[in-house]
Amino acid sequence: MSETRNGSSPGPGATLTCASARRPRRILLTLPWLYGNIAMEVPQVAYDEIIRRRVAVFKALGHETRARIVEILATEGEKCVCALVDRLGFDQSTISKHLAVLKAAGVVSSRKEGLNVVYGLRAQCVYQFMRCIDQMADDGECVLACAGALRKKE
Predict the structure, then answer these.
(1) Cα separations in angstroms, 27 against 3, 43, 55
(2) CB atoms within 10 A of CB 108
């Protein structure tokens, strides 16, 4: 398996090839566990941005209150800030801060409805991933229809 410039691996079974060992301008990234045998050429800057975006989402989900907000929005649909305040028992400024972190990471979206701001889950796959983690905690295997789980069984 290849390694990235900082020594981390791009993923299991992935290969990462670059034109220059010193400072690659473009890389060839093959992710068999995600895309089958499709190889794609990705500019190094774009690949770095993809990793940063993933890290931002994981950081956003890395707080218990934000994880609860995601679950509420996924299971109950759009909610205004006041409904989340009532449901979670925190003050409005705390909930608004958490929502701002989730929105900056692209996990939720918002819209104005009169004087209220209504939030909804923008990335349903985030909740599916959380459910996959729940399943793994129970018996160690993801049974949801996520691409990685399906490819491993084939």
Answers:
(1) 12, 6, 20
(2) 25
Span 38-48, pLDDT tens digits? 555 666 667 88
Does the structure show a pLDDT above 60 at 6? no
Query: b/e string for 121-131 if b means 16 or more Cβ within 10 A?
Result: bebeebbebeb
HSE-CB of 138 using CA atoms within 13 angstroms: 8
Contact 53, 104 (CB under 8 A): no
What are the chain's domains? 1-51 (no CATH), 62-122 (1.10.10.10), 124-154 (no CATH)
The CA-CA-CA angle for residues 132, 138, 141, to 5°, reads: 55
Give the integer Cα–Cα distance in Å for 80 and 77.
10
| CB 34, CB 11: distance < 8 Å | yes
Segment 57-65 shows an average pLDDT of: 94
